Amino acid sequence: MTAPHPPRPERGETRIPAQTPATLIYNPRAGSSHRAPLAALCGALQDAGFAVTPYVTQHAEALGDLLRGVQGTVFLAGGDGTLRTGALHLMGRPEVTLGVIPMGTANNVARALNLLGDPLGVARRFGQARPVPFDVGRVRGGWGVDYFLEACGCGLFADILDDYGPHQAKSPVRALGSMLEAFSTHRPLGLHVTVDGRPLPSPPVAVLEVMNTPSTGNGLNLAPDAQVGDGLLNLVRVDGLRRAPMLTYARALRLGTFHRLPSVEVTVGRHFAIADSGQVWHIDTELRRSTEPGGVVEVDVVGMSLNVLRS
């Protein structure tokens, strides 16, 4: 039986294109949610060609149930915390394509995908976005196994985060106090490091970060050349014996020239092994420390773990 032809539109009538079904996870507590109310965001995604089913949640713990069994396109509208939790639930699921709508403070993942600007404008641009692979980093230490979207590391930045308390209410004054405290008391770490099985000689380091995205934390642009889908990670080390003044680093981070400072070295690879002397580690914004130091922390890339929309 032949299917009937759809009726032709009358002269002057505009045919509305079919909408692609999609799921929207919306966090109303995100830092810039006031710039993208739920109804307006649904309308912007409709303009981009998506018919979204929205789910509102303020709690990252609820994302596992919301995302279990979901297929097709999933938009996550929130900060980096919402994005990290949601994305880790979607790892290794090729039937899902992730759309990042930045409504947080730093939006490091969105920045790596060129999804910058007003959240509603970003949503409308998804009509021309294309899916690309997105790698995830894996960390194995004495505490177990973790995954990161942005970065993991030890040294000065991890110590600042540890003093600040990543899950406490945000406070610029407290953040400045943590930064000053860490800079004044930090002692360089003498760590044996191997990259893809090869020893990497190094003086004691003030900072050691393994980067998947160009920036991490509060927009710390440590590895501008990092690419999220190239199957590689960027190891960034700061020589603790030639450490520059804090304002030098702050200016370089603002200008995107941190990686060019004489005390900074960047090494690209797939697998890193770093001596564990009991130092605190950050995994994105989570903190970890081995209960039995003396072994190694292994960091490797899990290539093409996610499909994401890129502008």
Automatic annotation (TrEMBL):
Residue ranges annotated for the DAGKc domain, each copy included: 17-144
UniProt keyword annotation of Coiled coil present: no
Nucleotide-binding as UniProt keyword: yes
Keywords: ATP-binding, Kinase, Nucleotide-binding, Transferase
GO molecular function per UniProt: ATP binding; kinase activity
InterPro entries: ATP-NAD_kinase_N, Diacylglycerol_kinase_cat_dom, Lipid_Phosphate_FormReg, NAD/diacylglycerol_kinase_sf, YegS/DAGK_C
Classification via PROSITE patterns: DAGK
Protein name, entry field: Diacylglycerol kinase family lipid kinase
